Amino acid sequence: MSKKEFFLRIEKLSLSERIALMEQILKSIRSELKSVKHRNMRRKKDDVHKRRQSFEIEPFDLGEEVIVDRDEMYSDRGI
């Protein structure tokens, strides 16, 4: 059945039948969107969990306190 034939059949339906058809289509779309939203939320939770994995910082000593002057450090780069 072509699209044209499909729409001609729909046009022949009564108003209440067309409204019922639209309700079924909307219901189908809503359920599909909910499943996509649920899938995306699970994926986001997994991503957040991956980003929040703990890590350890190992302290080290340079022998003396180092004060970094950003202007001096970047002056040779012309920034």
Helical stretch count?
3
β-strand amount:
under 5%
Oligomer category: single chain
What overall form do the CA principal axes indicate? elongated
Structural class call reads mainly alpha
Q: Topology as H/E string?
A: HHH
Low-confidence stretches: none
Helix amount, in percent? 55-70%
Describe it for me?
The protein is mainly alpha-helical. It has a domain at 1-49. Helix content is 67%, strand content 0%. It contains three helices and no strands. The protein has helices spanning 3-12, 15-51, 70-75. The radius of gyration is 31 Å and the shape is elongated. The protein starts with a helix and ends with a helix.
Task: Break the fold down into its secondary structure elements and pairings.
Blueprint (H helix, E strand, L loop, with lengths): L2 H10 L2 H37 L18 H6 L4
What tags apply to this protein structure?
79 residues, mainly alpha, elongated
Provide a concise account of the structure shown:
By secondary structure, the chain is mainly alpha-helical.
